[in-house]
């Protein structure tokens, strides 16, 4: 009997926390959606401004910077959407967002600020993230094959 009362008490406490957590995830999804839209519009505006710009390569880098940022935001949003569908956090989209961020950093780094330590550290992080994405892909394949 005591165990049943305890479980009812725990369920009573867990439900409000679950509702609050769900509401927070909905808020995060809305903010990420707005950020992705703003980033996409910003990228389009930058792209349209390139023809009148005297330095085309700088304009293209700005567009690429914005597009990669949009991809990062969408990958994080995908993590939230997967949580809504499965009630579980997927790690792979977060790893892909991290990998995209590191590639974005490499592109933005340029050759002017050549620092061997930064480049080596960035290369190591990219290698680790790539290995993690590949490993997570195999894990998801194994999970789907078993399920």
Brief account:
The protein is mainly alpha-helical. The protein has helices spanning 2-49, 56-86, 92-109, 116-146.
Can you walk me through this structure?
With 147 residues, the protein is mostly helical. It has two domains: 1-90; 91-147. Helix content is 87%, strand content 0%. The protein has helices at residues 2-49, 56-86, 92-109, 116-146. Helix 1 runs antiparallel to helix 2, helix 2 runs antiparallel to helix 3 and helix 3 (92-109) runs antiparallel to helix 4 (116-146).
Secondary structure elements and pairings:
Blueprint: H1 2-49, H2 56-86, H3 92-109, H4 116-146
Helix pairs in contact: 1-2, 2-3, 3-4
Question: Tell me about the biggest sheet?
Answer: none
Helix content: over 70%
User: What value does the average pLDDT take?
Assistant: 83
Assign an overall shape.
elongated
**Backbone structural class:** mainly alpha
Provide tags for this entry:
2 domains, single chain, 147 residues, 4 helices, mainly alpha
């Amino acid at each position: 009997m005591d165990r049943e009362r305890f479980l009812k008490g725990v369920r009573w406490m867990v439900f409000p926390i679950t509702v609050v957590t769900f509401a927070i995830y909905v808020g995060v999804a809305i903010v990420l959606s707005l950020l992705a839209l703003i980033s996409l519009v910003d990228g389009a505006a930058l792209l349209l401004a390139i023809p009148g710009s005297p330095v085309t390569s700088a304009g293209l880098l700005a567009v690429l910077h914005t597009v990669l940022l949009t991809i990062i935001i969408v990958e994080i949003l995908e993590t939230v959407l997967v949580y809504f569908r499965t009630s579980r956090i997927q790690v792979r989209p977060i790893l892909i967002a991290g990998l995209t961020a590191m590639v974005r950093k490499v592109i933005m780094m340029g050759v002017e600020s050549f620092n061997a330590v930064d480049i080596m550290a960035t290369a190591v992080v990219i290698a680790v993230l790539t290995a993690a994405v590949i490993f997570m892909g195999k894990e998801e394949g194994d999970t789907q094959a078993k399920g």
